Write the structure tokens for this entry.
Amino acid sequence: MIWQDNDSPSGPPTSARANREGQKPVSTQASPAELVDGLSATVEKDGRVKFALTRKRKAFAHLTLPANQAGEIAANALGGAYDAHDQALMGLVPPAERKTSYPFVRITGLGLGPCTIEGHACLVVRVGASELGLAFPKDKLKQFAQWLAAAESLNS
């Protein structure tokens, strides 16, 4: 079980612990109507983010974390997608179809940082208080920068 700073047994009661202790649970928000299967997030009054896993339009699991830990959720989800793609290339699992559109978020910062993978740098994307590092091959950085500059000049 993962304990958050204020979810430890000595901390204030969480909704799950409140149920065990006979207290009234915190109400949970329904998943967005358009979400059939997936993950949704809502901001709680205390600033933490509640993540809800949805299957067939019904939320079946919730996890509340500080906003700065949202990158952990994103990294694990994307890591699973990478592993599934890698295994599909090896013929171990069927390949997933590529979607015709992609979800996106607005970012509040973008930077470059060190990476533990040899020959890579991390493109660090900041979204609010959370950061996510994307391992990027160093030999592709210049090409990426040129592509960004060209795209920007087209949009100006």
